[in-house]
Amino acid sequence: MKTIDLPTNSAEVNHLLDQARQDDLVVRLADGSEFLLIALDEFDQEVAKSRDNPRLMALLDARAAQTATIPLDDVKRRLNL
Which residues pair with residue 26 across a beta bridge? Predict the structure, then answer.
């Protein structure tokens, strides 16, 4: 994901950003191209950065593919519970 700093003197852009603070927007151009404009909070930014991390995504994919489990009784025994 790329971050672009915009000048604050564009009334049209500021109007769109104000609307996006209230609700997600789909911006449609005359050629039919569409873009999603949403307000991000810190959690959203962290999720986006995580998705851009190939090593983390590979680890999560590998973990999700694991099918082996340990029965609860075995876990309790191993932890002396």
Answer: 36
